[in-house]
């Protein structure tokens, strides 16, 4: 007989194995293999896997890592573009108890060396195209460690790459990824973490002004965000998802795990181009993808021969990473894409707010719909706190759409903290909130809108200028493909806006002075006088791997140009 205990009140009922389990997204994969074993899980070139195959491959990876003493407390680094092995690592690595560190493939060797050393990665999985990057980083680490750093090296082969790179890696002692999987057990019995606070991934910030910071995420947050993606976006079971967003960026905004939860199909795109995206939509019936606004801009400005417009079906797009210009949103809508605008940071598992579409917006003119959709919106379902606060006393700013404050977060969708960086953690979590460093306003309907990063605000003659607002207006100029506005030293005003512009392909760029004057004239007709850029620079804009424009590089260029001279009458 079971001995019954008498509880004092309703909250005395205890947790037990039957009614409580730690939250982890790893179980989504096991369920997908059970429910849809024969449905395609991953497609990459001529390769394709089913959910049953993907589950067994991840079990093999977990088993092989465990056989090599990779378990709780270990970190596995992956240097790869959007290929199946990187997707599998998001399950196979944490199934062994270890933490996956997906490395940005566009970083230089010095930075990659810092990441590998700082994370103490015991295993490095590297795509064959990036062997030289890994080798250069390892040379830097060898010098710093006196040859003591000796991780397990695994090379990921790809049929689209040069076989010479693969052979070089094998000759250097790397283990080929498929051979490594063969050493593992497809029936490996993995165990979920005993504590959902256990770390699942480690990702690094860009480190534009200092060493990159290691963002540590936990199983609970990954589980909740993966499901929240489906809830807020309406991406349903069986969706066909195109990997235009790098999986190494915030773990693909947690869609690595969402796709398993909804038993969808991932189409891997090794190189992101407008032609590649349109081709995937036509060939694979892509229904969803995520991308930064710069990718959307490339789609609406793609050469006609690279497109399949009108689209054969509605394609849902989630955009984040930068504030999308309303003209780009309007153009995407005209092409047949349905764009959902979200906002977040690496520290908040990727997108954690959404500009939730309201039915009453359907009757608005297209330009007004785009303006409303350009706002960053309201909290994700699993975000417990979102506020715009006065930076001096942490009091919420009024919801008037004009008073600027800092955007702060609170809840399960916030990181554990920065690895080995107590000072940064103290600053980030001051006063019980995570401080984003982004400045914004709250509108009367409760929707927030970013005005700028605190470091991107231009202070001209004592007046604050939002570079984002200036950019949104400049995007309306018919000759401008891309634009980024930063501060430039100014003799009279201290700082003034400087616009870096990429022109559309069909624009005659032979007379840049005339074009610059036309852009300034256009600006004067659309914005306050002190917002008008005093200098316009033409050329290609530097970007991160996810398509975000690197404003710190442009600020350096603007500074090197010297101050804008005070006009002499």
Automatic annotation (TrEMBL):
Presence of the UniProt keyword Signal in the record: no
Q: Pathway involvement?
A: Phytoalexin biosynthesis; 3,4',5-trihydroxystilbene biosynthesis; 3,4',5-trihydroxystilbene from trans-4-coumarate: step 1/2
Q: Which family does it belong to?
A: Belongs to the ATP-dependent AMP-binding enzyme family.
A molecular function annotated in GO for this UniProt entry is: (E)-caffeate-CoA ligase activity
The cross-references to PANTHER family, in alphabetical order and at most eight, read: ACETATE_BUTYRATE--COA LIGASE AAE7, PEROXISOMAL (PTHR43859:SF7), ACYL-ACTIVATING ENZYME (PTHR43859)
Annotated GO biological processes are:
phenylpropanoid metabolic process
- From which source organism is this entry? Lithospermum erythrorhizon
Q: Which InterPro entries does the entry mention?
A: AMP-bd_C, AMP-bd_C_sf, AMP-dep_synth/lig_dom, ANL_N_sf
Domain AMP-binding enzyme C-terminal span(s) in chain numbering: 469-548
This chain belongs to the protein called Ligase
Q: Domain AMP-dependent synthetase/ligase, which positions?
A: 29-419
Keywords per UniProt: Ligase, Phenylpropanoid metabolism
Q: Which CDD domains match?
A: ttLC_FACS_AEE21_like (cd12118)
Highest taxon listed in the record's lineage? Eukaryota
- A Pfam family cross-referenced in the UniProt record is AMP-binding_C
């Amino acid at each position: 007989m079971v001995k019954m205990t008498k509880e004092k009140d309703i909250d005395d009922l205890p947790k037990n194995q039957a009614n409580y389990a730690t939250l982890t997204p790893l179980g989504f994969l096991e369920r997908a293999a059970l429910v849809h074993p024969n449905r395609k899980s991953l497609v990459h070139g001529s390769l394709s896997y089913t959910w049953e195959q993907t589950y067994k491959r991840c079990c093999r990876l977990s088993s092989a890592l465990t056989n090599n003493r990779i378990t709780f407390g270990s970190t596995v680094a992956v240097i790869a573009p959007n290929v199946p092995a990187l997707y599998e690592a998001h399950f196979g690595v944490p199934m062994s108890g270890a933490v996956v560190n997906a490395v940005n493939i566009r970083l230089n060797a010095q930075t990659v060396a810092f990441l590998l050393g700082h994370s103490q990665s015991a295993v490095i999985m590297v795509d064959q195209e990036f062997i030289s990057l890994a080798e250069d980083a390892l040379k830097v680490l060898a010098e710093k460690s006196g040859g003591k750093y000796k991780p397990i090296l695994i090379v990921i082969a790809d049929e689209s790459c040069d076989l010479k790179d693969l052979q070089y890696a094998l000759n250097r002692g790397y283990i080929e990824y498929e051979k490594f999987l063969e050493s593992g057990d497809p029936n490996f019995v993995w165990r979920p973490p005993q504590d959902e606070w256990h770390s699942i991934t480690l990702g690094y910030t860009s480190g534009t002004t200092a060493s990159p910071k290691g963002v540590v995420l936990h199983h609970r947050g990954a589980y909740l965000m993966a499901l929240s993606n489906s809830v807020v976006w309406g991406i349903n079971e069986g969706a066909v998802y195109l990997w235009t967003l790098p999986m190494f960026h915030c773990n693909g905004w947690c869609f690595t795990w969402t796709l398993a939860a909804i038993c969808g199909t991932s189409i891997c795109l090794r190189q992101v181009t407008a032609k590649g995206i349109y081709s995937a939509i036509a060939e694979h019936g892509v229904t969803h993808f995520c991308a930064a606004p710069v990718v959307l801009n490339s789609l609406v400005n793609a050469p006609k021969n690279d497109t399949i417009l009108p689209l054969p079906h509605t394609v849902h797009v989630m955009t984040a990473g930068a504030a999308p210009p309303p003209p780009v949103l309007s153009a995407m809508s005209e092409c047949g894409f349905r764009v959902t605008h979200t906002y977040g940071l690496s520290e908040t598992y990727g997108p954690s707010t959404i500009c939730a579409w309201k039915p009453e917006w359907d009757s608005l003119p297209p330009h007004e719909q785009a303006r409303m959709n350009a706002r960053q919106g309201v909290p994700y379902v699993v975000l417990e706190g979102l506020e715009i606060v006065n930076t001096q006393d942490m009091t919420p700013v009024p919801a008037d759409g004009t008073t600027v404050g800092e955007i702060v977060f609170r809840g399960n969708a916030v990181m554990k903290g920065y690895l080995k960086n107590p000072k940064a953690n103290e600053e980030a979590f001051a006063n019980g909130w995570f401080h984003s460093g982004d400045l914004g306003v709250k509108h009367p309907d409760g929707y927030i809108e970013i005005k700028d990063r605190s470091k991107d605000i231009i202070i001209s003659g004592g007046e604050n200028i939002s570079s984002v607002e200036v950019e949104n207006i400049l995007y309306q100029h018919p000759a401008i493909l891309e634009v980024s506005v930063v501060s430039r030293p100014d003799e009279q005003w201290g700082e003034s806006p400087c616009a870096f512009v990429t022109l559309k392909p069909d624009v005659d760029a032979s007379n840049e002075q005339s074009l610059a004057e036309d852009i300034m004239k256009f600006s004067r007709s659309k914005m306050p006088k002190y917002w008008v850029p005093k200098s316009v620079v033409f050329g290609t804009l530097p970007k991160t791997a996810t398509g975000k424009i690197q404003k710190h590089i442009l600020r350096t260029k603007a500074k090197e140009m010297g101050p804008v001279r005070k006009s002499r009458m």
